[in-house]
Design goal:
This protein has 2 domains: 19-140, no CATH class; 156-212 and 232-330, no CATH class. Helix content is 58%, strand content 0%. The chain is an all-alpha fold and 346 residues long. The mean pLDDT is 90. It is globular and about 85 Å long. It is built from 17 helices and no strands. It has helices at 19-41, 43-66, 77-87, 96-107, 123-134, 136-140, 156-161, 172-181, 187-197, 200-205, 217-229, 236-252, 263-268, 272-279, 290-310, 317-325, 328-334. The termini are far apart.
Length: 346
């Protein structure tokens, strides 16, 4: 009896990773994009991120205190929620927008379901959806041009040369959607779209308008590579998501008929990279099975393209992920692998 042993049920798996370590690893991966948001949109973008993070942490701590539950803000999940919520808002929104969004994300999207590990939908995206439904004009009007760039991503010289001054206050996806709608009646629409397709460099580096954390594909990919290296996320969801968007936008997103779209433009535009690597891969709200993750990514891609091309919004990443979050229980149920060694009953 002198030697005491720890007795537990199988499987006996040990790992050095922990929830706080993973969450702070995600925070670390987001630092390049945070720095980029401040560089492109100014110090105000940094303050919006700070407000969102502080509100998320404070809301979680206060709710758990009043509910007499263990305070778990030290695990870092509320910090991640605050950063991602801030990444999904424009730089010119009032200071209270990230405060309300983060409070809603935690108080409605996370704590009522039991906290981390029990929320059915991504809290940050739920907060963003609430803000978009409540204050659509503040969430969809962009006036802050990025440093060394333009809101549309089209070079200033091209805007002047082709007389495209009317689109200077629109983001790339806004320009694409509006000009595609008037293509048959506007001679400049085809020019505008062709100029968008020539703006790959601006889209990749982040010299375009949009929400403060989604514009720089380069900086987001730096963080994504770190997450993949640490094995915090896998590639099934991002690749199936991005691949579906690429295929469908090529088939149906063109201006000259079937299979004339530009998939690279749709991959680099909007919040696709942010959503595919940072929010669709959320461990809590994504499937646990391999096939389920592929179906999840494909579903996100189908919904994103549908909203972008025929929906009322120019962007569909947030709503597509939220809707697919609700399908996760079914995906896990119907994609469960066969139990090893189980004999099929006759």
């Amino acid at each position: 009896m002198e030697n005491k042993f720890l007795v537990s049920a199988s499987p006996h798996i040990t790992d050095k990773e922990s929830i706080p370590k993973i969450m702070y690893g995600v925070v670390l991966s987001l630092i390049p994009a945070i720095v980029g948001s401040v560089y492109f949109f100014g110090v105000r973008a940094g303050w919006l991120i700070v407000l969102a993070v502080v509100t998320a942490v404070a809301t979680e701590a206060l709710l758990q205190f009043f509910m007499k539950k263990p305070i778990t803000v030290g695990d870092g999940s509320a910090i991640v929620t605050g950063i991602l919520l801030a990444f999904n808002i424009p730089a010119e929104v009032p200071w209270w927008i990230p405060v309300v969004g983060s409070a809603f994300a935690i108080a409605i999207g996370k704590i009522p379901f039991g906290g981390l590990g029990y929320n059915p939908m991504n809290p940050a995206l739920l907060g963003r959806a609430f803000l978009l439904a409540s204050w659509p004009t503040k969430m969809t009007i962009f006036t802050t041009a990025p440093r060394d760039g333009t809101l549309s991503g089209i070079n200033a010289a091209s805007i002047t040369d082709f007389g495209l001054e009317t689109i200077t206050q629109a983001t790339p996806l806004n320009v694409f959607k509006t000009q595609r709608a008037v293509l048959e009646t506007s001679a400049k629409a085809e020019v505008a779209i062709s100029q968008l397709y020539d703006s790959y460099g601006n889209l990749f580096w982040g010299k375009v308008g949009g929400c403060i954390g989604e514009t720089s594909v380069f900086l987001l990919l730096i963080g994504a590579i770190y997450l993949i290296y640490k094995r915090y996320i896998g590639l099934r969801i991002p690749l199936s998501y991005i691949g579906t968007v690429a295929l469908l936008s090529w088939l149906f997103g063109g201006t000259k008929g079937l299979a004339t779209g530009d998939p690279i433009f749709h991959i680099l535009s909007g919040g696709l990279i942010l959503g595919a690597f940072y929010m669709a891969t959320d461990m809590v709200t994504s499937p646990v099975t391999s096939r389920g993750r592929i179906y999840f990514g494909v579903g996100c891609g189908v919904l994103t393209v549908a909203i972008r091309l025929v929906g009322g919004y120019p962007e569909g990443v947030s709503y597509s992920i939220l809707l697919m979050n609700l399908s996760v229980p079914l995906l896990d149920r119907y994609t469960r692998p066969k139990t090893f060694g189980k004999v099929k009953e006759k």
